[in-house]
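[Help] Beginner question about ligand-bound structures

Sorry if this is basic. My supervisor gave me a protein sequence and a SMILES string for zinc ion and asked me to "get the holo structure". I don't really know what that means in practice or what format the answer should be in. Inputs are pasted below exactly as I got them.
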Amino acid sequence: MDAFLELGRQIGTMFGRYFVLASILTFILLFFKYKSIRVRLLRSEGVQWQQIRRELWHSTIAIVIMVLTFVGILSIAVALGFERPRPSQVEMGLAGTLISYFLILIAHDAYFYWTHRAMHSRYLFRTFHAVHHRSIRPTAWTAYSFSMLETVVTAAFFPIYLLIVPVPLAAVVAFGLTQIIWNAASHSGVELSPKFLIVGRHPFNMTGAVHHDIHHRYGRYNFGLYFRFWDKVMGTEHPDFEKLFRYVTSSEYASDVYERDRSALAQ
Ligand SMILES: [Zn+2]
Ligand SMILES: [Zn+2]
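Answer (accepted):
No worries, everyone starts somewhere. Holo just means with the ligand present. The predicted complex, written as structure tokens, is below.
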């Protein structure tokens, strides 16, 4: 009975995070939509409630499967006699915890890029990844809108990582939060990331909403999750990404959108 309660608690926590974040991002979208100057808003059609209903349905099932995959992989490993240190027993100090957190992000980024690219191959796309790409103009609710097979592939990363690498509890929690915040924000249709993070002169340029929007629109560019690293190295980044990002985050874009809305109202 305890195991069922624990499963329910984990599913509830994941769903709660997803629901709260997607709701906040939807309100931000609405707020930008009804402001006269739509700074950083990537689309003009507003909130697509019918699409959100479908995404919420797929995401809810995906969250249940994610937790089952996580618990399933760890249970099988334990049954096979694989010893793993529990995150609550791993002590690393502040510096160690920070390094551990960045290592998970880097490993998850690589895992996501390569599994994502594989799922875009014509052999796998339809059965694994087509559900996610039904959202050509994604919303924050698209974050976990996966088919069952894609969910298992996506969810397998973390339990396998925990079996191989000792991770302190604080890094586990920080990673869980980063993952859903970045995922939902990248799908939200509003570019909220500071310019420095995305196009600054440093080796850790990140992806963001413009980057992932291009992925959903064209399908063959921008496969990365957190960092632009793999797309840059493998030549899969959209050639105009930086130009588009700078335009969307410029005052010129804000006044262009304002002018377009004014002329649409005048017609
Ligand atoms: Zn996506
Ligand atoms: Zn994709």
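A couple of things worth pointing out: Residues 132, 138, 142, 187, 212, 216 surround zinc ion (ligand 1) (CB under 6 Å). The longest helix spans residues 2-33. Feel free to follow up in the thread.
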